[in-house]
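Quick one, T. Sequence first:
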Amino acid sequence: MLADFHCLPEESRIWIYAAENTLSKDQQIYIVNLISENLKGWNAHKQPLTAGFTILKNHFIVIALDESKNEASGCSIDTLQNMIQKIEKELSIPLMNRLNVFCEIKGKIVCIPSFKLASIAKSNTLFYDLTIQKKSDLHHYLKPIGEGWCAHFL
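C-alpha coordinates:
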Protein backbone atom coordinates (compact mmCIF):
# COMPACT_ATOMS: atom_id res chain seq x y z
CA MET A 1 0.00 0.00 0.00
CA LEU A 2 1.46 3.32 -1.06
CA ALA A 3 1.69 5.88 1.75
CA ASP A 4 3.03 9.41 2.03
CA PHE A 5 6.72 9.04 2.92
CA HIS A 6 6.58 11.96 5.34
CA CYS A 7 3.65 10.43 7.26
CA LEU A 8 5.37 7.10 7.88
CA PRO A 9 6.72 6.50 11.41
CA GLU A 10 10.29 7.52 12.18
CA GLU A 11 11.12 3.89 13.04
CA SER A 12 10.20 2.74 9.51
CA ARG A 13 12.82 0.56 7.84
CA ILE A 14 14.51 2.18 4.86
CA TRP A 15 16.48 1.26 1.79
CA ILE A 16 18.55 3.88 -0.02
CA TYR A 17 19.65 3.68 -3.64
CA ALA A 18 22.05 6.29 -4.99
CA ALA A 19 22.53 7.65 -8.49
CA GLU A 20 26.13 8.52 -9.36
CA ASN A 21 24.97 11.66 -11.19
CA THR A 22 22.15 14.09 -10.52
CA LEU A 23 18.82 12.60 -11.62
CA SER A 24 17.16 14.64 -14.35
CA LYS A 25 13.51 15.70 -14.08
CA ASP A 26 12.55 13.09 -16.69
CA GLN A 27 14.41 10.37 -14.82
CA GLN A 28 12.71 11.39 -11.58
CA ILE A 29 9.27 11.31 -13.21
CA TYR A 30 9.94 7.79 -14.50
CA ILE A 31 11.18 6.67 -11.06
CA VAL A 32 8.21 8.22 -9.23
CA ASN A 33 5.71 6.58 -11.58
CA LEU A 34 7.33 3.14 -11.47
CA ILE A 35 7.87 3.05 -7.72
CA SER A 36 4.37 4.41 -7.01
CA GLU A 37 2.77 1.65 -9.07
CA ASN A 38 4.93 -1.06 -7.51
CA LEU A 39 4.43 0.03 -3.91
CA LYS A 40 0.64 0.08 -4.34
CA GLY A 41 0.70 -3.71 -4.61
CA TRP A 42 3.81 -4.52 -2.57
CA ASN A 43 3.17 -7.37 -0.18
CA ALA A 44 4.79 -10.04 1.98
CA HIS A 45 3.14 -13.45 2.06
CA LYS A 46 0.00 -11.87 0.54
CA GLN A 47 -0.18 -9.28 3.33
CA PRO A 48 -0.02 -5.65 2.13
CA LEU A 49 3.05 -3.62 3.04
CA THR A 50 2.65 0.06 3.91
CA ALA A 51 5.48 1.92 2.22
CA GLY A 52 6.39 5.26 0.76
CA PHE A 53 9.35 6.82 -0.95
CA THR A 54 11.10 10.06 -1.69
CA ILE A 55 13.99 11.28 -3.79
CA LEU A 56 16.48 13.31 -1.74
CA LYS A 57 19.03 15.76 -3.13
CA ASN A 58 18.20 14.60 -6.70
CA HIS A 59 20.47 11.59 -6.04
CA PHE A 60 19.02 9.31 -3.37
CA ILE A 61 15.92 7.15 -3.76
CA VAL A 62 14.68 6.31 -0.27
CA ILE A 63 12.01 3.67 0.26
CA ALA A 64 10.48 3.43 3.73
CA LEU A 65 8.44 0.53 5.09
CA ASP A 66 6.22 0.73 8.17
CA GLU A 67 6.99 -2.66 9.69
CA SER A 68 4.67 -2.07 12.66
CA LYS A 69 1.90 -3.51 10.48
CA ASN A 70 3.62 -6.14 8.35
CA GLU A 71 7.33 -6.90 8.01
CA ALA A 72 9.20 -7.41 4.78
CA SER A 73 9.96 -10.96 3.72
CA GLY A 74 12.80 -12.27 1.59
CA CYS A 75 10.50 -12.38 -1.42
CA SER A 76 9.22 -8.84 -0.89
CA ILE A 77 12.78 -7.55 -0.63
CA ASP A 78 13.62 -9.42 -3.84
CA THR A 79 10.66 -7.67 -5.50
CA LEU A 80 12.07 -4.32 -4.36
CA GLN A 81 15.52 -5.16 -5.72
CA ASN A 82 14.00 -6.25 -9.04
CA MET A 83 12.18 -2.92 -9.32
CA ILE A 84 15.42 -1.01 -8.72
CA GLN A 85 17.19 -3.17 -11.30
CA LYS A 86 14.44 -2.32 -13.79
CA ILE A 87 15.05 1.38 -13.15
CA GLU A 88 18.78 0.85 -13.64
CA LYS A 89 18.19 -0.93 -16.93
CA GLU A 90 15.55 1.44 -18.31
CA LEU A 91 17.46 4.60 -17.42
CA SER A 92 20.99 3.16 -17.89
CA ILE A 93 22.07 4.34 -14.44
CA PRO A 94 23.71 2.38 -11.63
CA LEU A 95 21.85 2.64 -8.30
CA MET A 96 23.18 -0.27 -6.24
CA ASN A 97 26.96 0.13 -6.31
CA ARG A 98 27.78 -0.07 -2.60
CA LEU A 99 31.47 0.60 -3.29
CA ASN A 100 30.74 4.26 -4.05
CA VAL A 101 30.96 6.94 -1.39
CA PHE A 102 28.82 10.05 -1.84
CA CYS A 103 30.56 13.10 -0.42
CA GLU A 104 29.65 16.74 -0.20
CA ILE A 105 32.51 18.75 -1.66
CA LYS A 106 32.22 22.49 -2.28
CA GLY A 107 28.44 22.28 -1.87
CA LYS A 108 27.99 19.52 -4.44
CA ILE A 109 27.38 15.80 -4.14
CA VAL A 110 30.32 13.91 -5.60
CA CYS A 111 30.34 10.15 -6.15
CA ILE A 112 33.75 8.71 -5.32
CA PRO A 113 34.75 5.06 -5.78
CA SER A 114 35.90 3.83 -2.37
CA PHE A 115 39.38 2.94 -3.67
CA LYS A 116 39.91 6.61 -4.66
CA LEU A 117 38.55 8.10 -1.43
CA ALA A 118 41.96 8.66 0.22
CA SER A 119 43.18 10.76 -2.72
CA ILE A 120 40.11 13.05 -2.69
CA ALA A 121 38.69 13.25 0.83
CA LYS A 122 39.82 13.76 4.42
CA SER A 123 38.37 12.46 7.68
CA ASN A 124 36.33 15.66 8.12
CA THR A 125 34.86 15.53 4.59
CA LEU A 126 31.10 15.06 4.85
CA PHE A 127 29.57 11.95 3.30
CA TYR A 128 26.06 10.53 3.00
CA ASP A 129 25.82 7.36 5.07
CA LEU A 130 23.61 5.14 2.93
CA THR A 131 23.92 2.20 5.32
CA ILE A 132 21.39 3.66 7.75
CA GLN A 133 18.39 1.45 8.53
CA LYS A 134 15.64 3.68 9.95
CA LYS A 135 13.83 6.74 8.63
CA SER A 136 14.81 8.67 11.77
CA ASP A 137 18.48 8.20 10.81
CA LEU A 138 17.93 10.47 7.79
CA HIS A 139 18.19 13.43 10.18
CA HIS A 140 21.93 12.72 10.53
CA TYR A 141 22.95 10.70 7.48
CA LEU A 142 25.36 13.46 6.41
CA LYS A 143 28.40 13.08 8.64
CA PRO A 144 32.20 13.28 8.59
CA ILE A 145 33.90 10.31 6.93
CA GLY A 146 35.90 9.81 10.14
CA GLU A 147 32.64 8.86 11.89
CA GLY A 148 31.43 6.47 9.19
CA TRP A 149 31.85 3.01 7.77
CA CYS A 150 34.19 4.32 5.05
CA ALA A 151 36.81 5.81 7.43
CA HIS A 152 39.08 2.80 6.88
CA PHE A 153 39.51 3.80 3.22
CA LEU A 154 41.44 6.93 4.21
